Amino acid sequence: xxxxxxxxxxxxxxxxxxxxxxxxxxxxxxxxxxxxxxxxxxxxxxxxxxxxxxxxxxxxxxxxxxxxxxxxxxxxxxxxxxxxxxxxxxxxxxxxxxxxxxxxxxxxxxxxxxxxxxxxxxxxxxxxxxxxxxxxxxxxxxxxxxxxxxxxxxxxxxxxxxxxxxxxxxxxxxxxxxxxxxxxxxxxxxxxxxxxxxxxxxxxxxxxxxxxxxxxxxxxx
Length: 221
Prior knowledge:
With 221 residues, the chain is of the alpha/beta class.
């Protein structure tokens, strides 16, 4: 039984009973018993636990969790306290600094953003150690599409930050004209120079929130 401790419990209660999710759960039980899987099973839903449905102001959409030790903890692009930021997060901080003049944070833990209404959602919520996308097409994509669709139904505006091709493909789920979509290349070293650097999504998000009467995000960790 998954308990998220906020509005998501009621919103997703039927999703946890569907056949695809029950199959996914069976797959995960075998994976966690046989391999090293990230994040820890108690951390899989940390993004939803940290940012309730009504509190979401912005969504940063990632791919699958970091697959190296001591990194993933259930929030897209975020790492555990004390863990050096991986290359993609280093580039996110570089863009943040260039955009808003903020100093590079001493932590890669993005919980401070989540508590202000930034849903740090990966499209796939688990991964086998050392094997990127090893849990793709097992059911997580259906589950996270459901989350995005529920957010799309909200009247209060949300800013969706879609970085990279897999994230941009989710744009078809965002049909409500109340919401805003910002797209860019993925912040990984392979693509950051092809459209992530210079996107200024942090300042653009805050301008949108302010224009809609909402408190902007304090991006400084």
